[in-house]
Amino acid sequence: MSKAAQMREWINRRRPIKTFNRGKLSLQEKKAALGLVFVAPWFLGFVFLFLVPLYQSFIYSLNKLTLGKGGFDTSYEGFSFYRELFTNHPTFTRTLVESITDIVISVPSITIFSLFVATLINQRFKGRVFARAIFFLPVLLAAPVLSLENSSQMTSIAASVTGAAEDGGFVFTSFELKRMLLEAGVGNGIVTYITGSVDRIYEVISSSGVQILIFLAALQSISPSLYEAAKIEGTTGYEAFWKITFPMISPILLTNVVYTVVDSYSRNQLSQMIKDTAFQSLNFSLSAAMAWVYFLIVSIILLVTTTLISRKVFYYD
Fold this sequence. Notes:
The structure is a single chain. By secondary structure, this protein is mainly α. The protein is 73% helix and 3% strand. It is built from 15 helices and two strands. The chain has helices at residues 3-14, 27-61, 80-87, 92-121, 128-146, 152-162, 174-183, 188-199, 201-206, 209-220, 224-232, 237-248, 250-265, 269-279, 284-310; strands at 63-67, 72-76. The protein has a two-stranded antiparallel ribbon with strand order 1-2. Helix 3 crosses helix 15.
């Protein structure tokens, strides 16, 4: 036997023999298995309660549905219902633009307002629990209050919020605010956004309860030692917010933005038009086409928003 062969045999003898314990899992494998257990209910719900209806609605948007003996009979029409939306439908395009504009204006307003209120009620003061309950009440009372949307009571509520008197008098409205901001030299785009948020102040307040609680939980999870160290170094409250608070809650900021976009998806005129077209006009194919156009546009908004915000998100390890 050559020296090279003897050396290989010696190396093979010196190698440790690997033993596999098939009865036990490593800590990493246990965590992976536990994660699958928690994800399983969501996955099953996604497949059977969302993916299947989503596929069926797309099929409906490409077919004309007629009532038959065994249910609905379908006849393939292609993308004719999509063309009808943008060429023949009298109000779809206008309602779509208004709904998307409402989302673009409402989402930043609700997020900023929720963060401001959560930071405010996170401070130590008497009656803090009562103050938190007040800001969460609109979530509990949203359904009965929003049912008054087209009533005279809703008009008086809007008048009290915007400052316009019911008898035609003028107290302080967004028009006056717009004039003041323009005279102060603020840009027209910023002024339009601010006045649009003022006009939606009741919607902003009533839609921010869940976001306030999420931000509040995130604020309370920040270690006090970070603020103590910053205070020793002479950091002001303003600097502590932008250097400590804001980076630490940036992942929750992304979560709240996504939640607000999804929540705004079903709370506008276009969603109501989709429901009326399906269940009042019984035109399920046209309703499905509306829903798919709206779904794709909101998905693009979510994709762009999450991509931009994710670049600035800070994850503390």
